[in-house]
């Protein structure tokens, strides 16, 4: 597993949680003999509505079987299993028929480096959305 989440950006409690998560994942991988070298995480293109941008991430089914079933993953958890994407994404829904597909969203105009909404980026994203779908102001 690639744990490239920067240590300098985490608090001591985050480091403790991250260390626990790393150990927990290592035990799961060893217990279930998951061969991560043959597993691939696939990422969709981004898509949007007038408020958010979305993407879905498809996990190898054997990895998905080890995840919590009835709750959303925290950022530390989805980064810990190898999902790599810019800042600001939130795991927002569980698709019960296909639990190996993680659904993510973030507000339009989110700065990918800070994870915060930038008002100018938001304005540009909303204008692009309107232009793309032919929505004209009255």
In short:
This protein is α+β, with helices and mostly antiparallel strands and 138 residues long. The chain has four helices and five strands, in the order αβββααββα.
3D structure, described in words:
The longest helix has 21 residues, at 12-32. Strands 1, 2, 3, 4 and 5 form a 5-stranded antiparallel beta sheet that branches. With 138 residues, the protein is of the alpha+beta class. It is built from 4 helices and 5 strands; from the N terminus they run H-E-E-E-H-H-E-E-H.
Keywords:
138 residues; alpha+beta; five-stranded antiparallel β-sheet; 4 helices; globular; disordered N terminus
What is the C-alpha radius of gyration, as a whole number of Å? 17 Å
Q: Give the distance, in angstroms, between the N- and C-terminal Cα atoms.
A: 52 Å
Structural class: alpha+beta
Oligomer: single chain
Shape: globular
| SSE string, helices as H and strands as E | HEEEHHEEH
Low-pLDDT runs of 5+ residues are 1-8
What is the number of strand segments? Answer: 5
Largest sheet: 5 strands, antiparallel
Beta-strand proportion? 15-25%
Q: Name the helicity range.
A: 25-40%
Summed up, the helix count is 4
Mean pLDDT metric: 82
Spell out the blueprint of helices and strands:
Blueprint: H1 12-32, E1 42-43, E2 47-48, E3 52-58, H2 61-64, H3 75-80, E4 90-94, E5 101-107, H4 119-132
Antiparallel strand pairs: 1-3, 2-3, 3-5, 4-5
């Amino acid at each position: 597993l690639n744990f490239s989440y920067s240590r300098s950006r985490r608090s001591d409690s985050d480091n403790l949680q991250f260390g626990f998560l790393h150990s927990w994942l290592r035990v799961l991988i060893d217990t279930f003999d998951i061969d991560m070298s043959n597993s691939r995480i696939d990422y969709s293109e981004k898509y949007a509505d007038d408020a958010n941008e979305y993407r879905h991430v498809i996990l190898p089914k054997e990895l998905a079987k080890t995840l919590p079933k009835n709750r959303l993953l925290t950022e530390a958890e989805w980064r810990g299993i190898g999902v790599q994407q810019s800042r600001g994404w939130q795991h927002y829904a569980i698709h019960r028929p296909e639990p190996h597909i993680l659904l993510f969203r973030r507000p339009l105009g989110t700065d990918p480096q800070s994870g915060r909404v930038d008002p100018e980026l938001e304005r540009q994203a909303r204008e692009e959305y309107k232009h793309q779908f032919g929505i004209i102001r009255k």
